[in-house]
Specification:
- The structure is a single chain.
- The protein is mainly beta and 440 residues long.
- Helices cover 14% and strands 41% of the residues.
- The chain is built from six helices and 26 strands.
- The strands form three sheets. Strands 1, 2, 3, 4, 5, 6, 7 and 8 form an eight-stranded antiparallel sheet that branches. Strands 16-17-18-22-23-24-25-26 form an eight-stranded antiparallel barrel. Strands 14-13-12-11-10-9-15 form a seven-stranded antiparallel sheet, with no helix packed on it.
- Strand 23 and strand 24 form a beta hairpin.
- The protein is globular.
- 28% of the residues are buried.
- The N terminus is likely disordered.
């Protein structure tokens, strides 16, 4: 899978304008279709797809938001095409809930779809739908303008709350069959999402070589694609065991995975697989249906294999900001890392014209620097910090099978999941990220 990434070739000043002054971008064609507002970029190329659809807010009347969003998303998806991914509802960082899926258009092209619930008031909620070509450049260009679309749509709804009578959604009685399942992390409710994930990862991980015996593995598989809502590359790695079980979402080296502990703490990550022609099918346990496992077989590294390339991963969205991480591997066994991120947000109560905060962070072999700028309204100023800690971003590497061991010059040593996701070795998976060769 190859993507054309040109976003970070733009200058810092252009990036700043994307975040601070979205209204400077070319306009959108806004239309009303039935009970929804439609937004399409005026400068969208004819061979590309990108569209926001914002449905009229409705009262949930006691319905569970997660179940409601899932049912409405399925209804909307039926007008587009058969979903290619299992339905999964996740909380969004900027509030509300989100779902990502895909479908094939009339030309056989995979199109990504994102659904997000958002509250207009304490009593009414609406769904924002984003439909886009699987092109990172397109998503990063138009996806970053989501706040502008939301502000415009909400302003319209407040002036004219009933664009049209909305179709009736499933009633709470129809959804009353939903069973509340026990939360395997109930005892850890005081932990944040990140703390919970790290605690579980620590619990299911053991010393190298004391986890999964690779002789019990039929294949390690990886499926990657565009993350519609957050702008970047989504990675799903699977371990397919010879006994027919499958572990979904592997982010640690297989030979460090404690299977029984993982099944106890991560029951939803375990399912079954079966052979289907030259590929595989995976069982989606919630529905009891089998679907084709998309992606490629993971290509393990040779023992002490050496590389001589610079690899990059990048992404960006209105809510997550923009980021760029690189890893340069040298044939003498040395590596260099760097990361850059920029995020801009309106301050609480800032509205559309109030003060904004922009944070820029950079870390490489020279050290770490950060800048925070406050601008707009009656405020202005900023702060900056610098650290000479470049040794954390350089060191030596050792490749072996599905692992990489990094010994940083500051003394930190760790082993992580690492493999190539295609035979030409132009891209690889590192933990849960996909890196590809940076074009000069």
């Amino acid at each position: 899978m190859k993507y054309s990434i040109n976003f970070f070739l733009l200058s810092i000043s252009i990036l700043f304008l994307f975040i601070q002054n979205i209204t400077a971008q070319k306009g959108w064609n806004k239309t009303k279709q039935g009970n929804a507002l439609i937004y399409v970029p005026n400068d969208l190329k004819s061979d590309k797809t990108f569209k926001y659809t914002v449905n009229v807010p409705v009262a949930l009347n006691g319905q569970n938001e997660k179940t409601w969003l899932l049912n409405v998303a399925k209804k909307l998806q039926n007008t587009l095409g058969k979903p290619l991914k299992p339905w999964k509802v996740t909380p969004e960082k900027n509030g509300g809930l989100g779902i990502v899926n895909m479908y094939l258009n009339s030309q056989g092209e995979k199109i990504s779809v994102g659904y997000q619930s958002k509250y207009l008031s304490n009593s009414k909620v609406y769904i924002l739908q984003m439909i886009t070509s699987n092109d990172v450049t397109i998503i990063m260009k138009y996806g970053k303008q989501i706040e502008r679309i939301i502000n415009d749509a909400e302003s319209t709804f407040k002036i004219n709350p009933s664009l049209a009578s909305i179709d009736s959604y499933p009633s709470s009685e129809q959804q009353a069959q939903t069973t509340k399942k026990s939360n395997p992390y109930k005892k850890k409710t005081k932990l944040s999402g990140k703390e919970k994930r790290l605690a579980i990862e620590k619990s299911i991980r053991t010393a190298p070589g004391k986890g999964v015996n690779l002789s019990s593995v039929a294949a390690i598989w990886v499926d990657s694609g565009i993350d519609v809502l957050w702008g970047g590359i989504r990675v799903d790695s699977y371990i397919l065991f010879k006994n027919g079980t499958a572990y979904d979402g592997c982010e640690i080296p297989p030979n460090e995975l404690l299977v029984n502990k993982s099944k106890k703490l991560q029951p939803k990550k375990w399912t079954k697989w079966r052979k289907s022609g030259s590929g595989y099918q995976i069982l989606y346990r919630k529905k009891g249906t089998w679907k084709k496992l998309e992606g490629n077989r993971a290509i393990k590294t040779r023992t002490n294999e050496k590389l001589n390339k610079k690899y990059i991963t990048t992404g960006g969205s209105q809510t997550a900001g923009s980021w760029k991480n690189t890893i340069t591997f040298k044939p003498d066994g040395r590596f260099e890392m760097s990361n850059f991120s920029m995020n801009g947000n309106k301050m609480l109560g800032g509205g559309t014209t109030g003060p904004s905060v922009t944070v820029v962070h950079k870390s490489d072999k020279e050290g770490t620097s950060g800048t925070t700028v406050v601008s707009g309204g009656d405020l202005g100023g900023g702060t900056s910090t610098k650290k000479k800690d470049g040794s954390k971003n350089t060191g030596t590497y050792y490749l072996n099978g599905y692992t990489i061991t990094l010994k940083h010059d500051n003394g930190y040593e760790h082993t992580e999941l690492f493999f190539f996701d295609n035979t030409d070795k132009r891209s690889f998976i590192y933990k849960d990220e996909r890196f590809w060769i940076q074009k000069k």
